[in-house]
């Protein structure tokens, strides 16, 4: 299902790249500016190198597993 990603901290770099559904290109996001909502199980994604500072992130998602 969908996940929500938010990032915090003073850093350079650390942008989130998420693969587009219609093609293999990536859209670049800064999770500090606003939460990013996407299905991480269906779309490739990564964060580029942080060149300075510290990046903290939270990811919220629903699990199909029942506890």
Give a brief description.
The protein is mostly beta strands. The protein has no helices and eight strands.
* Secondary structure: number of strands: 8
SS field, number of helical segments: 0
Largest sheet: 3 strands, antiparallel
Distance between the termini: 18 Å
Provide structural commentary:
It is a single chain. The chain is an all-beta fold and 67 residues long. The protein has strands at 3-8, 11-13, 16-19, 26-29, 36-38, 45-47, 50-53, 56-61. The strands form 3 sheets. Strands 5-1-8 form a 3-stranded antiparallel β-sheet, with no helix packed on it. A 3-stranded antiparallel β-sheet has the order 4-3-6, with no helix packed on it. A two-stranded antiparallel ribbon has the order 2-7. The radius of gyration is 13 Å and the shape is globular. The mean pLDDT is 93.
Task: Name the descriptors.
67 residues, 3-stranded antiparallel β-sheet, globular, mainly beta, 0% helix, single chain, 8 strands
